[in-house]
């Protein structure tokens, strides 16, 4: 039985990237899940397990981000002994990458080739504005289109009021309140996975991502942990990235629950996540305005007249400082690596 890969997002652009690898024993496939050198992939012949070829491991030796991840399109090869190997990862259209917490602060790939990233934040017990802003910056930087999903809206007496409040953190973006218990907002979310499109879910553990996957697919494909009523927190239900094809086409990508949201060199994504602040900054008298005590600062004027919340400005400053520090560290690592290469030669 041959499966139509266009239902999973295969298109002319990916087909063009695959063409140089096309041969009788090769085939394109999409990674559903990656587990320490072994990937579950979906190709024209269905689901199979594939190990990583040496060329893939060598290409990722300097940067683990180059390893296959859920959502990637890859070139597979079937051997006479029925082994399947991944020979290459096709160029990614979008990539969701966060900074790791180790001393090297390298990138960790969470998902690839998604069309939309839904930042999922539970209404109960109370949305975390700072976390939402960080996740939206991460989503913008991925190259995909973000949206904000407020889960468990059945736990709020006035979910519309919460939507209006959180919409201020997502200027220009759709904000969708959902409840799997009441099936509210689920049909709206399904519009983001029609026509072979992929929707990635991003949020903390206990936000309800796996429950949303089950609601979108119409069956229990992801395990769900009960959360603690007191603080709304739960165990890490999903410790891996998992791409789930939907019966009508398209796919939803469940990412691991995130405790900490580290930003890499994401100045572009940060400015888009804080589009309201960036627009004000464009009207400051001086181009290098630090938005402190400088005369003619449109940002501080907005805070003073109440059109911009002080907390919003403080969050923007904090995240910009974090990105600047990480950019400097990245540059230092590049200089050190170049020095080592010169010494070796």
UniProtKB/TrEMBL annotation:
GTP binds at residues 151-154, 203-211. GO terms for cellular component: cytoplasm. It is found in: Cytoplasm. It is an enzyme of class 3 (hydrolase). Binds 1 zinc ion per subunit. CDD domains: YjeQ_EngC. Its cofactor is Zn(2+). Signal peptide: none annotated. Its EC number is 3.6.1.-. GO terms for molecular function: GTP binding; GTPase activity; metal ion binding; rRNA binding. It comes from the Bacteria. GO terms for biological process: ribosomal small subunit biogenesis. The keyword rRNA-binding applies. Residues 112-259 form the EngC GTPase domain. Keywords: Cytoplasm, GTP-binding, Hydrolase, Metal-binding, Nucleotide-binding, Ribosome biogenesis, RNA-binding, rRNA-binding, Zinc. Zn(2+) binds at residues 284, 289, 291, 297. One of several proteins that assist in the late maturation steps of the functional core of the 30S ribosomal subunit. Helps release RbfA from mature subunits. May play a role in the assembly of ribosomal proteins into the subunit. Circularly permuted GTPase that catalyzes slow GTP hydrolysis, GTPase activity is stimulated by the 30S ribosomal subunit. PANTHER family: SMALL RIBOSOMAL SUBUNIT BIOGENESIS GTPASE RSGA. HAMAP family: GTPase_RsgA (MF_01820). Belongs to the TRAFAC class YlqF/YawG GTPase family. RsgA subfamily. Monomer. Associates with 30S ribosomal subunit, binds 16S rRNA. This is Small ribosomal subunit biogenesis GTPase RsgA.
